[in-house]
Amino acid sequence: MANMNRRCPLELRTDGDDACKSACDAFGKPEYCCNGAYDSPAMCKPSVYAQMYKSAWKVREEALDS
């Protein structure tokens, strides 16, 4: 299995783990954690980090299927 951490932005990288931190864990801001003023589906939209992860996961899944 590929190390997904290599595709993580620097600010989401973990030490010695094969995963990325979530933007919520990394920054703790309501817009990334979907809480406070962002606690509804209408207000909590996928962040650029979520979109990057989803794209990387799709590429990984396609590679595993081939």
Automatic annotation (TrEMBL):
Q: Which organism is it from?
A: Senna tora
Q: Which protein, by its recorded name, is this? A: Thaumatin-like protein 1
Signal peptide residues are none
Superkingdom of the source? Eukaryota
Name the InterPro entries on file. Osmotin/thaumatin-like_sf, Thaumatin
The family line of this record is: Belongs to the thaumatin family.
